[in-house]
Structures are given as C-alpha cells and as structure tokens.
Design a protein that fits this description.
Layout lengths: L1 H5 L8 E3 L2 H13 L10 E3 L6 H7 L13 E4 L17 H11 L1 H8 L4 E6 L8 H5 L3 E8 L3 H17 L7 H14 L13 E3 L3 E3 L5 E5 L4 E5 L14 E5 L3 H10 L3 E2 L3 H7 L1 H14 L13 H10 L1 H7 L1 H15 L17 E2 L6 H11 L4 H7 L1 H8 L4 H13 L5 H9 L7
Helix pairs in contact: 7-8, 11-14, 15-16, 16-17
InterPro entries: DUF6638
Length: about 425
C-alpha cells in the first residue's frame, strides 16, 4: 500500500484541508452525522468529502458510506468538483456529484463562502439486501443541509420577503423587519446570491455496485440487464418480466450481450493498429504468466528481446492460457483482411479482442466490465476498475508489485487523457 501511496496510485489528486475554519466546518458536518470529530489539523478529501486520513483515524473506511447506499457527502469548497471519488459503492457516484455541482454551481459557491454543505444522496432503499433493492433505484435525491444552517436561514428570509410583498401591513411589523435585517447580515442579498440549490433529483441509470461481489446493471429501452454472481440473492427472481440476468462467469454470454446491444467496438484493423491495444494486451498476457513464477523474473527491462526469450522459456504455460496465441493470430488476420470473424473466436476469450464502443454512453461501465473479466491486464483494470485492481494487487508477489507500480507511473500517470484516448478511444471526460 505504501508503494501505491507514494506513487499517487491510490488517494491521488485529493484536496488538502488545513485551514482551521474548514477543519472546524468539517467537524460540524461529522457531528451532524453523529460521528466523532477529527483531531487532525490537516487531511485530504475527494469530491464527496471522504478523507482517507479521517477514515484511518476513525477506523472506519465507510464512515461516509455506512450501509453502502445513501452515500453521505461534505462540501467545503467548489474546488471539490474537480476531484475524483476514491471510495464508493456505486460507479456513478462521481457522475452524480459532478451533476449536482454543475446544476447548483452558484448556490454552492455562495454557501461555501460562509458555510459547509452536507447531506446524503438518497436512494429509494435504506439497505441493499437483494438485487431487487438495487434495481428499485431509478433516481436519487440530494438531501442537503448546512453546518451553520445558512440554508435554513435563507429559506426563512425568502419566506419573510414573500410575506412583505403579499401582506399589505407587513412593513409595519418591526420585529419581522428586524429579523429580516438580522438574517440578511448572515445570508447576504438572496436576490443576488442564490443560496438554495435548485436541482436535487437526478437519474440513476446504468451502474456498477459493490454488492454481492460486484453487480453491473445496464439499462436499455425495454429491458434491464444484470450481470453478477448467480449466487446473489434475487438472481433470476427479481422482476423476471423486465430484467435479464447473466452470470458474470459466463463470459461468452456477456460478450454476446455487449456486442448485440452495440456496446462493443469489434476488432477492425483501422482502430486496432493505431491504438496499440492488442500489442499492449500481448505484453500483459506474458507478464501475467511471469507473475505466477517463483521467483518472479527480472522485470526491470521489458523489450522485444526479453519477451521473445521469456516466450521460449515458458511456451507451455503461455500456450495453455490461450490469450497470447489468440492475440497473435488476431493481429495476423487483421493485417491480412482488416476484420475478424468473432464467431471463429473461443467465446471465453472474445473480450480480449474488443473495447467499449467509444460513442456509447455506457463506454466507461462497459470497459469496467471488460477489465473485470480480463484481470491479467492490470493496466486496464487500474484505469477502469480500481476496486478490483486494489484487491488483485494485494495478492501479487512482492517483486511483481514493484513492477506494476513502476509501469503505471511511467505510462498511464504520465498523461491519462492521452493514454485513454489512444488505447480505448475515450475522450477526456473522466479523471
């Protein structure tokens, strides 16, 4: 874990909170959640206000996500909008937070000058016990409060302003006018400064949830598709008339679903050769075999000579896995014909030859599912499925961990948007 921290591969790009007034506001929000206050004078937060340092102090990584649903948030500054989410049970937490910031930018900016926003992203369920609980979440509502009750005071002032306009004798009420002046000193001119967030309800469409070993939910016009462990409670029983269920172990059916619904970019020479994705995955296939050896071979210099030597020495293990020979043959076929017939490919290995359709709105979720089912490609897993990557990293041999950290630091972290654009065809709309 220390390697990941030092390389900023975990808890990277967070915002430092060290000003005493911001620490005090954060503590008021913690108290409102009935949580112990932090004794830290400096800590770092993500877009939701989650702090790994506070989590460690409290001994609770889920202090803002107690039941892995109805996620809590603490907003100290509008700057949080540019931050990632580093701890979440839903893949769309970041998207929902960005939508909230965008829709209520003026109010957030005005309030955080004097106060802190906190609350919950309320779902329609209080706890997830079955798949039906997850499927019942169609939209979420932001329940928003403020530590110094600036929101409440702005609401009071709005009501009094309305009464002053509608009631002919209200201007004679000295007590009411004095109250308005007192409130205005705290809230400012609410005619100019919007203090109450306007949009609080947002759609909750396709998503990944960290429940029952990981659940992928894809939403199409007439049907919802759930991909997860078939042992999850409610599998093939929750809403069978409107939900299709696919075992996450059935990679052939997963690939067929993604292709049939237009979520996959099937292999064509036009993008495969320019992206370098197959060449990348060839290398990942060899390295995944290296990680199983004892001792792990020297990985300090990976080049064509090293790969060829390693291939000769470990031909049987590499061939038995099937990934490397599949990718080699695919590249040869593409160079000759420009296309591949997916029907000719072993269904269990088809996801190694595709990437998410870059123009599909579920591109990120689809790439996450592909990365989950091709775990040997640790780079793609880090990019799209960080929770899965961290769990896998814990099982890597020590020497392989060194290489993984070095590889990610020297490639992906150098220029993340350019890396995602080249290999996966994605734009720069994700951190």
């Amino acid at each position: 874990m220390n390697r990941l921290l030092e390389a900023e591969l975990i808890y990277g790009r967070l915002l430092a909170i060290r000003e005493p007034h911001l620490v005090a506001r954060y503590n008021k929000a913690l108290a409102a959640f009935d949580l112990p206050q932090t004794n830290l004078t400096e800590f770092y937060i993500d877009i939701t206000g989650f702090s790994p340092q506070v989590a460690a102090e409290l001994g609770d990584p889920d202090y803002l996500d107690p039941l892995k649903v109805n996620r809590r948030f603490i907003i100290l500054t509008p700057e949080q909008d540019s931050l990632p989410v580093v701890h979440t049970s839903f893949s769309n937490t970041a998207g929902l937070m960005h939508e909230f910031f965008s829709a209520n930018a003026r109010a957030i900016h005005a309030i955080t000058l004097k106060d802190t926003l906190y609350g919950e992203i309320e779902d329609s369920v209080s706890e997830v016990k079955t798949l039906d609980d997850l499927l019942s979440i169609n939209e979420v509502k932001f329940k928003v409060l403020s530590a110094e009750d600036l929101l409440g005071k702005a609401g009071q002032l709005r009501q009094l302003c309305d009464a002053l306009v509608t009631s002919p004798d209200a201007w004679r009420d000295d007590a009411m006018l004095e109250r308005m002046v007192s409130l205005a000193k705290e809230t400012g001119d609410i005619r100019q400064n919007t203090l109450v967030p306007d949009k609080l309800v947002f759609r909750h469409d396709a998503f990944w949830a960290d429940h029952f070993g990981g659940v992928f939910v894809f939403v199409d016009e007439k049907i919802t598709t759930v991909i997860c462990d078939p042992q999850a409670p409610g599998f093939r029983r929750s809403r069978p008339w409107q939900v299709s269920y696919i075992s996450i172990d059935d990679t052939a059916q997963v690939a067929d679903f993604l292709a049939r619904t237009g979520r996959l970019e099937l292999p064509r020479a036009s993008w495969v050769e320019s992206s370098g994705l197959f060449a990348h995955r060839l290398e990942m296939a060899l390295l995944s075999v290296a990680a199983t050896l004892d001792p792990v071979p020297d990985l300090t210099r990976i080049d064509a000579v090293w790969m060829q030597t390693f291939l000769h020495r470990n031909a049987k293990a590499i061939s038995d896995r099937g990934i490397y020979p599949l990718l080699q043959e695919a590249l040869r076929t593409l160079s000759r014909t420009g296309n591949l017939r997916m029907a000719d490919i072993d269904p269990k290995l088809r996801l190694w030859l595709v990437r998410a359709e870059p123009d599909h709105p579920d591109q990120w979720l689809t790439n996450r599912l592909i990365a989950h089912l091709t775990p040997e490609d640790f780079v793609s897993r880090f990019v799209f499925d960080k929770q899965g990557f961290y769990r896998a990293y814990d099982q890597y041999p020590e020497a392989y961990r060194d290489y993984v950290v070095s590889r990610l630091s020297d490639t992906y972290l150098k220029d993340k948007p350019a890396f995602r654009k080249r290999l996966y065809g994605l734009g720069d709309d994700h951190a």
